[in-house]
């Protein structure tokens, strides 16, 4: 690691063992910062510090700390006052416990630091603490003072160094009240199985492969503007449709993830597309159906229609049977008359 300026010098208190250390930042920001400018002429906008009493600008060397009391009066606090605070952690990282790492809520995580051994005499106790942490599979909980306040920290091993994560005090972490949806929702086993399948298909990733694409795009814009060129245009964002069917969305996501990894052929994608096309029209027709005013009314209407249809069918069947029996009886009567009555003879014409 390149030499980094330490931001705090002190010692780790490990029981009766004292380990001189230097605190250095473990992270760095790569974000691009902007300056405020006057739009009319491009001049820099700066903030100047003025004294309210004298109404004049003052330098950083003339600025100190002060505490504003309830009545508005200012009580000056000097660095010497802070150095005499009755705290054992003023220049010491005091280890108070060793706990399993999973006991620490990630919500408490704050800034990260490396603890560097403060010279050759610190090498032996530093290595002892590092190896003890490794073998125990635990992390050390410590208290320390930094930038005018006492803080909580967690010590753990990173490669061959000891790192310290600043922790928020438990009362500084808000409870998630009112965050979860208050609508009652039921998730079935099939939906969970598809979600598990999607998680398995997406798999893991090497975090070292991830990078800040926004910063890279911003650098391209700045470079183009500096060269007097037109900044590159942003690509069209992918259009995301509304989720009409959670199951269909999960199935499509699993299929797309498999296809991107080469685990599924074109046939599976076509079958999924067909399945989605069959589902969507059903949802659209259901939406186009006019809304019924009351469920009871629609049920009564449907029942009446069904009853009317059955009654009409019964009447039609009865009338059909009645007409059939009448025609049969008429046929029988006609046959009987024909057989009983004598045959009429045609009279001959007389000649004069």
TrEMBL record:
Keyword Membrane: no
Protein name, as recorded: Non-homologous end joining protein Ku
Higher taxonomy: Bacteria, Bacillati, Actinomycetota, Actinomycetes, Kitasatosporales
Pfam families referenced in this protein's UniProt entry, alphabetically: Ku
Assembly behavior: Homodimer. Interacts with LigD.
Residues of the Ku domain: 55-184
Family of the protein in this entry: Belongs to the prokaryotic Ku family.
Region (Disordered): 254-352
Positions with biased composition (Acidic residues): 264-274
Function as written in the Swiss-Prot or TrEMBL entry: With LigD forms a non-homologous end joining (NHEJ) DNA repair enzyme, which repairs dsDNA breaks with reduced fidelity. Binds linear dsDNA with 5'- and 3'- overhangs but not closed circular dsDNA nor ssDNA. Recruits and stimulates the ligase activity of LigD.
Superkingdom to which the source organism belongs: Bacteria
UniProt-listed CDD domains: KU_like
Keywords: DNA damage, DNA recombination, DNA repair, DNA-binding
InterPro entries, per database record: DNA_bd_Ku70/Ku80 (IPR006164), Prok_Ku (IPR009187), SPOC-like_C_dom_sf (IPR016194)
Biased composition (Low complexity): 291-306, 314-344
Provenance organism: Streptomyces cylindrosporus
